[in-house]
Each structure stands twice: as C-alpha cells, then as structure tokens.
Amino acid sequence: MKRIKWNDDWIFLKPGENPMMAAISGGGGCGEIVTLPHDAMIHEERTPDTKNGHQTGFYPGGCYTYIKNFTAPREWAQKTVMVEFEGVYQNARVYVNGDYVGGHPGGYTCFSVVLDDFLKPGENNELKVIANNSAEENSRWYSGSGIYRDVNLIVGNQVHIGMDSVRIQTPEVEEDLAVVQVEVTIRNQGGRKLKTRLYIELTDPQWTPVGKTEIPVTVFAQDEEVCRQRITVEAPVLWSCETPKLYTCRLVLKAEGEVLDEAEEVFGIRTISLNARKGLRINKKEVKLRGACIHHDNGIIGAVTLERAEERRCRQLKEAGFNCIRSSHHPLSRAMLNACDREGMLVLDELSDCWTRSKNNNDYAQYFPDYWEFDAKQLVAKDFNHPSVIMYVTGNEIQEAGTAKGAQLNRIITRKFHSLDDTRPVTVAINGLLSCMDHMGEIMCGIMGITMEQMQQMQAQAAAQPASDAGSDAANGSTDLMKGPMADAFAANNIVTEILEEFTSVTDLVGYNYLTARHAKEHELYPDRVILGTETLPSDIVRLWKIVKENKHVIGDMTWTGYDYLGEAGSGCFYYDGRQGFMPNWPISVAYMGDIDIIGYRRPISYFREIVYGLRTAPYIAVERLNHYGEKVNKSAWAWKDEIASWTWDGYEGKPAIVNVYAAAEEIELFLNGKSMGRKNAGEEHEWMCSYEIPYEPGELKAVGYTQGNEAGQDILVTAGRPAILKARADRRVLKADGADLSYITVNLADEEGRLNLWAEKEITVSVEGAGTLQGFGSADPATENRYDNTTWKTYDGYLLAAIRSGKEAGKIKVTFTADGCEAAEVMLTVDTGKKE
User: Fold this and answer.
1) Are residues 174 and 219 in the same domain?
2) For residue 562, what are the contacts with CB-CB under 8 A and spacing of at least 6?
3) What is the pLDDT of residues 9-24, one digit of tens each?
4) In this predicted model, what pLDDT tens digit does every residue of 291-331 receive, in sequence order?
5) Does residue 455 fall inside a structural domain?
6) What domain range is 691 assigned to?
7) Do 674 and 579 form a contact (C-beta atoms < 8 A)?
8) Residues 799 and 820 in one domain
9) Which residues contact 579 (CB under 8 A, 6 or more apart)?
10) Exposed e or buried b for every residue in 29-65, given b needs 16+ CB within 10 A?
11) What is the arithmetic mean of pLDDT over 518-522?
C-alpha cells in the first residue's frame, strides 16, 4: 500500500481555544491553517515558572487540536482507508466525524487508524487529532508538541499488499552474486477468494533491472498469504558507509489483468557479523563505530521533522567524522533513516528511555508495560529494510538493571526483538550509577577504604558547609563519579560486576554508559562478550578511542552528543558566576554539549575528535575565551574547553591568551605575526594537542605541524576589523514546491575585506518574500530569551541561521538580512515544481 503525504491544510487550535466550538463550526473561522509537520511547543512563550523547567528548555506543554476537513470520494466505500501518524507528541487521540478511531500515548511511535467504518463517502468529513502534552515533566529533554512528523493517507483495494509487510533480506552475499529474499503479505478483506499474481522487480543504483519474478497467489476471503521469494543479483554493489549504494524493489499485485496494489521499497545489499574476536564487520570488513548520540529536535525549527532538516543534520555529522548515530532515547524518524541510507550513516535505533521505573513524574514508564510490544513491533517494521540500521537498543540507563525482575524483563524484550528481526543484534545501554544506586554506600566505602560510619560523618560535614561551597563540592563529587580515578574505581568494582552480571548476560552485546574502565576489563571476565560505549564523555575521547583501537571486542564509542539540542538546558555550559549545570538556570534553553552547535557550526572539539579518529592531518587552532581568562569556572564532566577558532578580541590587546593547537603531527610551531612562539610536542604520544600562553596581539596566528622534520599541514587565524558586511550563504538555492523543502542560510559578520568577525555582536533582521516562509531563525546562544520564530536576532560567535521553507507553488523567494552599519545581504531562492513545460 502506498503512502501519500497528507500534510496540507490542517486547522491548528492552541490551548484556550475551544475544540467543542471548532467541532460545531467544522473548524471554520477557528484556529490557524498550518502545513504539517508542525511543532506547537517551539511557538510557546518560555517562562522560568514552567513546571518543565530546564528539562525542556523552559518550554511549557499544552493540549493541542488539529482538524482536517476533506471530501471522501464515493469509491472509498469499496476500499480500505487508513491514516498513518509518524509521530505525535503525545497522548494522541484521533476522531473521525466525532467518533474515536484510535490513538497512541507514545510521542515517538508510528501508529495508524482505519477510517472505513466512520467515513461518509461523497460528503465532507472531519478528522480531528488531539495531542495532549499538558502533563508536564514527562520528558528529560525538549520534546516538542503536536503532529511534528508526517501524516500519510493510505487508500487500498480490499485485496492489497499489507502495510509494512514487505521485508527484504540479503542472506547470501558474495563478490559475484547476492541472494535477495523478498517477503510480502497479501491481505484479502473481501468476501470471496481471489486469484492474484505478484510481480517483483529489482533495480540497481542506476535504475537498471537486475532481477525479477512473479508469483501466483490465491488469497481466500478474510485471510492473508505470506509470499517469500529469493532473487539472485549478479555483481552486486554493496552498501557501506563509504559506498551507500541503494537498490529498489518494486511490487505490483494484479488480478485478471487489473492492478490491485503497488509498493516500492529501497534497500541495500550488505552483511553484518559480530563477535569478540573480530569485532563488528560489515561486508566482512571490520568497522569501528565513530558514534554520536543525538536527540530528535532540529534546533531552531524545534521538533519539526522535515526530510531536508534530517538530511542536513546527518550530512554534517558524517562530514565531522562520525559514521554512526544512536537515536537517544526514542525511535528515529523515517526521514532520518532515509537520510542515513543515502549518506552512509550507521544507526542504532532505540526503543525507550525507561521501562517500568520513572525518571520523571509523568514519563513513559506509566505506559511502557502496556505498550512496549506494540512500540517494538512498529520500530522494527519501520527499520527492517533500511541498510543503515545495524542494531536495536531496547532501553537507556534502565534503573531496574540491578534486579532479577529487571533481568527477566530484559530477556523478554530482547527475545521479542529477535522474533521480529533475527538479522540485527540487540543491546541495552547500562548506566552503572543508576543500576547500583541501592548499593552506592557499600561501593564507595570499599573504594575509599573507609567504614560506613566514616562515610556518614563526611556527608554530615559536607551538609554543614555554606550553600555555595556545598553546591561546588556536590558538583565536583558528581564529576568524580563520571570521570577520573574515582569513576574508574567504581566502574571496575567487583560489587558492580556482581550487580550487573545477570542483566548483561542477556543481550547480543553490552552497551555501557560512562563505564569506560569496564570496556577492556570485560574481556578478561567474559571472553566472548562484545562491548560498545553507548554513551560516553566527549572530554574523554582520547582514552576512549585508544581502548576502541586496541581491543577487538570493543566495537566503538558513542559520544554525548554529536549535535547540540534543546532541553537538558545548560548541562554543558561554562559558568563563571557560581551557578552549576543540570540546574534550572533561566534563560538557558540549549544543552550546549554537542560537537556541532544547534545552527550547524562545528565547535573546536569536533576538529579535535576528527584528529583523534585519524581523519584529519592538518592542525587546528582554538583560543580559550580571553574575556574569561583566569576566572573560576564551573562545568560538568561533559564540557570540553570554552574556546573558539578566533583571533579577534577587541580590547584585550596585551592580555594573556591560551591557544590550544590540536594536531596529528609530532610537533607544532606557533607563529604570531611571523614570530615563532616556539615548538611543542603534539601527536598521539601527547594526546593530540599542545597549548601556548601568549599575549594577545592582533594580526595573524599560524600553527605549522611537523612530522619527522617535514611540514604536515598548517592552520591560520587572522584578526578581523569592524563588521561592515553581512555574509549570507544558502546551502541550496533550488527548492521543491512540496511545502516541506528547506534552504538553510547562514549569515555572519565580516569586515570590509571579508574576514569573519566572531567577536562583534549585531542585531540582524531577516525578511522573507515570495514563494516560501521563514521556518526558524536564531543563533547558538544558549542563554538568550529570544524566540526562534522572531525575525530579529543578535549574532552569537558571529553567526545566525535562517531556515526557509518552500511553499506548494513555483516561484522565487527573496530573503533579505539587514543590520545597522552594514550593507544588506540578499539571497534569491527558486521554488520548482519539477514539471517540464
């Protein structure tokens, strides 16, 4: 059955608008006309008083109504009609002409409703969706609200190809041939049997037919038949991260010469194997996962899930050196899976953040026991044909991991995934601190070599300290258990091993969050166990990657996080005013801990990681912020360094500057305005970096790398003058007229010679005219009180980003940026229907 996007002309009712009155009037004159996907939360007024607090970035929830009025063709009376919702946050209830037809409480699970018994063929019909996100404190991150992913209309004959029933495997792959196994379910909802014929054709990445077959199938009334066929493909082009080549499978179902149904699936030919001796292999070649955890929001456009937004994020992560993403902590969107297939990005798709124990007052733990099987089935159905998906993650930091019942539930869930898909391994992400919380006192006493009584005395002394000191000590204590000798001693503790023993014995590999000291140790305890760092500290990448390289059974590392996100606000910020991370620090709305910030700018740690991975040879210069030199800073274990790639610091002439140079080269020589600041060791033996403290002097800062005496690349920063120019750069200038395409325009400040000025700040206003609209606009500033639907923003570290969304009609879009004292910048975009005249 084919999906047709059904995103146009929905009526959106905000909280406070009366859905009953809307129902009486049929939606006429009420609400706002929107095109889905739509995030209601991003347009809400942020307030420090919201119950959600910093977890959602101070965005409140609400109960929202979406109404779709449509005429049902009379022929629908003889067909089956469904509507599929790829993501509604959350507690979705769906009504047709006032009658309830279905829904789902989960915010990330794809679900569908059948309209057959509720439609009025030939007349106007009303579809109403209520998305109830009013129970605040239901998410630990920015969730978004409403119908934030695609809605699809599905109309089929009574005899049809079952939705999501086409399952494609490649069980045999050799250099000269591959076997493609196609399984499909044909359903008959009619009252008599029907003899049908199923035609299957495979085409290669160049659309050349490479295999076909046809199958006669008699489908009896109110029954279904499962067909399975193996097709040989000669000289297959294998899918991999380096060569993400995709094949297409087309299916046509006919009876008496009439086409009853059609379907099309994209797939890749590749194999996966996993063991502790040879690690993870794709197409028989070892692959180490250079991984990034990501959340689902798209920065300045909120949770709106558009194909282009997901593609951009995927591509930027790939360009930054990652080859794998972990969807944390919820099922990934179809749009992102499609992008990962095309870009060659591996995927770990995740079921849930919790099982039966809550992490928040109104989170999914209250629904998980009743809905996890449905959620798992939908996740696998969504993922099965995507070559990018290599693994399922059943849960994140499950608190019941240290109990017998938790281990039992782990077995049940893992077994369910294996029954749904036996081609991919299954894991679960384990946090030792949460799992062993009930035994923490015993563990800590053993590590510190003290008695429980002494521990209690130390806690009493800490409680008696002044509030500011106590807060700092608490933060440092938390850091000790996340990173450093104390964290390693905890991770390797025998009590921790005993507590986790049963839970970790269940899955195909073990995923550890922040338990780095266990990664290598596990091979001694369990020689056949495979380990993955499912969530790790970005500041620990040097040690982590060394462990990955030196141990076959450790298949990779997934940093938290690859891309910055909304919510968990301020957890990665640098505080110079005594505040702490992971606290409600208004007005911070951004986590501020991604290698790439929310507008797509690569932070220095991203280039450092690329060097550690062995993917970059040239050095990279980063300068710690001069305006905070010498100040005491509070930061979490997730923070790296408060630095930026800039040598423009007006007003700090002669003041000290700390310059960090990241390099694969053995030595670095730093030059300031042509004068050598000396040579220092770098490269792997010196953790890929060296640092200089020099007086700030405007001009040119250059780092030159040397290996075995030969130059091995250089990096240059140049001081910029006063901003006089607005530079605007669109990542694409031709958009599809589908109402869902995007052009991302980066705007930044430059001096008269075009040099970027990251120090200056200016308010910039954007205007959009023509065949498109402004989807979002903003900076990466974590502490702004501005809104992403405003048209005026102040630059942060020199940059702003505008997301322009196409309309449904062909035409031009003129985007203009203006700022006091600067010449305006104009970008022209074209919206194209793709139709030939």
Assistant:
1) yes
2) 291, 292, 293, 294, 317, 320, 322, 325, 594, 595, 596
3) 999 998 765 555 545 5
4) 999 999 999 999 999 999 999 999 999 999 999 999 999 99
5) yes
6) 615-718
7) no
8) yes
9) 585, 634
10) ebbeebbbbbbbbbbbebeeebebbbbbbbbbbbbbb
11) 93
Q: At what angle do helices 404-420 and 494-504 cross, to 10 degrees?
A: 40
344, HSE (Cβ side, Cα atoms, 13 Å): 16
CB–CB of 503/401 below 8 Å? yes
Position 783: which residue type?
A: A
Q: Does residue 243 carry a pLDDT above 60? A: yes
Residue 523 shares a structural domain with residue 409: yes
Q: Provide the residue count of the chain.
A: 837
Which tokens sit at 779? Answer: 């900076």
DSSP run (H or E) holding 93: strand 92-96
Pairing type for strands 389-396 and 426-431 reads: parallel
CA atoms of 175 and 282, how far apart (whole Å): 14
- List, for residues 537-595, the tens digit of each pLDDT value: 999 999 999 999 999 999 999 999 999 999 999 999 999 999 998 899 999 999 999 99
Candidates 539, 534, 783; CA nearest to 639 is 539
- How does pLDDT run across 397-421, given as a tens digit for each residue? 999 999 999 999 999 999 999 999 9
Q: Which of 391, 303, 392, 400 is nearest to 354 (CA)?
A: 400
Instruction: Classify residue 123 by its DSSP letter.
Output: S
Is 640 within the bounds of a domain?
yes
pLDDT tens string 441-469: 888 888 888 877 777 777 777 677 654 44
φ/ψ of 450, rounded to 5, equals -130, 170
Residues 784, 785, 787, 792: what is their CA dihedral angle, to the nearest 10 degrees? -70
